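Form 12-C: Joint structure prediction
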Amino acid sequence: MKKLALSDEILLSIEKPARYIGNEVNMVRKDTDSVDIRFGMCFPDVYEIGMSHLGMQILYDMFNRREDIYCERIFSPWTDLDQIMREKKIPLFALESQDPIKEFDFIGITLQYEMCYTNILQILDLGQIPLHASQRQESDPIIIGGGPCAYNPEPLAEFFDMFYIGEGETVYFQLMDRYKENKKKGGSRREFLEMAAEIEGIYVPSFYDVFYHEDGTIKSMTPNNPHAKATVTKQLVVHMDDATYIEKPVVPFIKATQDRVVLEIQRGCIRGCRFCQAGNVYRPMREHSLEYLKDYAYKLLKNTGHEEISLSSLSSSDYSELEGIVTFLIDEFKGKGVNVSLPSLRIDAFSLDVMSKVQDIRKSSLTFAPEAGSQRLRDVINKGLTEEIILKGASEAFQGGWNRVKLYFMLGLPTETVEDMEGIAELSEKVAEVYYEIPKDQRNGKVQVIASSSFFVPKPFTPFQWARMSTKDEFLQKAYLVKDKFRTMLNQKSLKYNYHEADLTVLEGVLARGDRKISALIEEVYKNGALYDSWSEHFKNDVWMKAFETCGLDPDFYTIRERSLDEIFPWDFINAGVSKEFLKREWQNAIGEKVTPNCRMQCIGCGAKSFKGGVCYENQN
Amino acid sequence: MKIRIKFTKQGPVKFIGHLDVMRYFQKAMRRADVDIKYSEGFSPHQVMSFAAPLGVGLTSNGEYMDIEVHSMTDCDTLMKQLNDVMAEGICVTECHLLNDNAKNAMSLVAAADYTVTFREGKEPEDIKGFFEGLLKFIDQDHILIVKKSKKGEREVDLKNYIYQLSVSDHKIFMKISAGSADNLKPELVMEAYDQWRGEASPEFAFCIQREEVYGNTGDEANPVLVPLGFIGESVE
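Section 2 - Result
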């Protein structure tokens, strides 16, 4: 049995020691001496969150299929252990071998949300790896980043040797082969970075110089190394069924946030909501076949023993075999002690029927995501959901016995007016009224309508990348306005309204559209104790605000500044498929309150067709 | 059919708490394709119960759980099925078919064996003196301690709950009372000794391992302690 990196004494004096011991069912074991490459796959958050991430599991499985690579897992130590590791100078380790991560060849860090950036510095710091790529020596691991936030990697440019822009299944093996090749011929770290820069989708930030205008915007970003490409093109899986999925996911001993089998039914989305980054950067939409999913459903349930299976996608209702897969899961597994949990589906007769089969109606709630309170604003954001659809769906559901509805909204969307905000309360009221149209003797108690609003953050590679974001005070005023409106509603006792934190949203906005200058800010806040910023109990807004001053940076420059259509953005060197021309067109359509049809209705020439697959070529064989 | 299963908990899995061990076995039953019974209702759960929860940090050679199945080939096959899907450190060592009217393991628990050793680097300087003192301590007619519980403080005589305590090869062996009525933790015995000798052992000084769990087939006055694996077994 492998010796653990932490002593019994430490493990017995911290919360949930099982986070750090590895040894779970389906953990991959390899002889570390007989592999060529040691790859540390890192999710910079606590174990239970990281272990719930599907992408990491896919790559863990993929890497470990190769005999010459040993891929191990790395997570952020929780604050209690963090402190002990600093005091005792214990180097951060990977779960499998329990070896220090500084001995590895690669550390791959997945960038799932902006507020994990300080945790990345924690990983490097505790790992005893220099924070800055420029300070790393030949023996230090190569630090590579990927995932949704890699679509604007610039705020993290200082800390990473390279980023990979695209889906993990495609070029990693090529990168690993180059690494071995270089190692074999005794090549240097720099030589490897140059080889890597030639691979499609790989971005080596140190090979680019950024020049700024006096006003702080970018003048130009140009390669300073002949191996670096001017444009880095996103890489993706063209035919989903060609990609291998996970067969034996690691089964945590402690309850992970996602404690179930997850089947990814499709990637990308046809809808084109203008605020949504995933819906844009993962274009075109590509589906798995029903047969592929059935096969994996059996294997995954058998190999994990999980008691629940769920589907994952950006918009499950658009999956062309939805009825097939849902019926299959219910018929095959319901009654064998396996729960089928459905993702949010468009509410219609079919989804209500299957929901009534798999969940206890009295305990479950219906979810709608209108995102905006008025039809006008829903047209601006291109959200196809209408009031009529929501009320009809709610009415059918109420007749079926449901009495709880959740509604999701955003505040601070471009062009938003007082009427749009008040519409949130009015729409919630209308849903409640639909319930009371049902004769009293047929009702199932009282109705509960829970409306939640988050604050809108403009993201790169969306039509709203030019949009001005609201300030914290504006956000809060908007939330108060909505709250006041709720108080005037007839059925206010059946309505509930929640809104998110505003401080965090502002920082998310800075990091999302930040440039290279933001690296200094992240380092400054980390050095002053910021960590686990996405956890409200650990978030220290004052540390961030002070760091802006220390670094001479202005958050308003990144958030509330109006951007001109010809501004060069920090992420413009990336070709994510959707063209800047398309995004501009969509931005203007938004201002003009013009709806754009979805990919199945009509191709609108977003640029993703260049990837030669998916929905762009549906019914065109 | 009621089945009693005995398993070990060794190595890193000692850091897995009792509730997570239960979750672990629920998933293991499905991986092993055990035809286990489920309760009725909207969210059915497996018919499964554990004899005595083991504290985090303790290892064990004698954990017990009961399950009910609709069908199975035989006990050996069931054992193999389960061991094929176990995590390192957890191993099924016995499997017994019980009478349908057998009481569940939890209600039977009367005593347990533990071995206690010093964690590396935590041995006292005078280890011989430590053990000699321990035997003197245990040799007393009464060992009165104040036990704190939710209901308040009460004085109890530990001697009534310690059935056997011996030392050999720097290893303490103790057979002590267990179960819902008079559960005694081995840690408490060591604490009482520290108090008696007026010297505190360092934190985390001891490695504790449970070796066996017993039921009482006699009565209160004349207990007959039998390992749970041998109680209620039906003849195949």
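Section 3 - Comments
Chain A touches chain B at residues 1-2, 4, 8-9, 11-13, 17-18, 21-25, 251, 253-255, 301-307, 337-339, 360 (CB under 8 Å). The domain at 8-233 of chain A is CATH 3.40.50.280 (Rossmann fold).
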